[in-house]
Amino acid sequence: MPKSQFIDPEESRKPGQITFKPIPVNQYQQTLQNERKHYSDDDFMRIYHDMQIIREFETMLNLIKTKGEYQGIPYHHPGPAHLSIGQEASAVGMAYLLTIDDLIFGSHRSHGEILAKGLSAIHQLTDNELMQIMESFFGGRILRIVEKNHQGDVKSLAIRFLLYGTLSEIFARETGFNQGLGGSMHAFFTPFGVYPNNAIVGGSGDISVGAALYKKVNLKPGIVVANIGDASAACGPVWEGISFAAMDQFTKLWMSLTGADYPLFLIL
Ligand SMILES: Cc1ncc(C[n+]2csc(CCOP(=O)(O)OP(=O)(O)O)c2C)c(N)n1
Q1: Is 192 left (phi over 0), alpha (psi -120 to 50) or beta?
Q2: Which atom belonging to ligand 1 lies closest to the Cα atom of 203?
């Protein structure tokens, strides 16, 4: 904490009122024709591709959970799977705008965000960087598995790596991104900016503030996003995070590389 901060009682004890500006709601009124001007066909194809990957991934997971098989391949893995089918655009839209320096934290329902941020990172990283990440992660254990019978370029290998590492983690296998210890609700892969998700409703609401504080005081580039459900707005950690982020020490006494008072976004 800073050693001193001047508070002028003349100013802070002056009678007054707190007023709020109107908060806009449901303001998005764009047409597809208008939006097309902001994106190339390649961008649109990539966005659609990433959404399709997430949809198929979760459809597969749902079939495994409910029917015990996917496309004729039986697999037994009982237990919950918190899906986000129908919300692929939110995850991909977010990830499309984030750089490799930006971090995401999530909830019990974050498979889509993990894949979206991972796919976006794969798009942004060079082949050499991707190979280095895959080679060094657990000594290349996941890479050895996914490169078997793989034909294609490094980016398609990295997508295989992302899908395998995430799914293996969800199935609690040792070859998962977190050695199967995190499972569906606590999967993460930090080299792509995917930080731990959290089964505690609202849990990422304050952990992400800590990560943003780290970035701010160390002048690190990038922002931090917390993806949390609407019910988490009723949970303590979220309010603690919001209060903490709004403290004068952070907004007045520390610089930020992003220019924002605090490099943090909460997405409810
Ligand atoms: C602190 C805490 N309380 C209760 C639960 C049980 N729980 C798991 S998911 C959930 C609902 C969360 O709703 P929301 O955040 O809106 O996300 P949604 O599941 O609707 O996407 C609850 C109450 C929990 N995991 N953590």
Answers
A1: alpha
A2: 1
